[in-house]
Design a protein that fits this description.
Blueprint lengths: L1 E8 L4 E6 L4 E4 L1 H7 L9 E7 L9 E6 L11
Amino acid sequence: MQASVHTFDLTSRSGSVLLDTGRRLPFDEEVFLASGLRHVRVGQRVSVEVEPADPEQPDARLSRLWIVGIGEGEPIR
C-alpha cells in the first residue's frame, strides 16, 4: 500500500506516515534504516507494509517503508 510522509526527523531517523485513509502510523529508526533510504521529505509518497495486515487495527504498526526502484532489491521498472 502507499502512504505520504507526515513527519521525519533526520536526527532520530524516525517519523510517521499518513495512509490514504487518513490514519497516521509512526515508524522508528529500525524501519527507516532497513529501507536503504537516506532521507524522506514531508509529503513524499512511499510504499509501506503494515503489521497486522489490517492498518485500521489499534495495534497496527509500520513494518516496512520503501520507494519503488530505490534500494536493494528494488529494480527500476
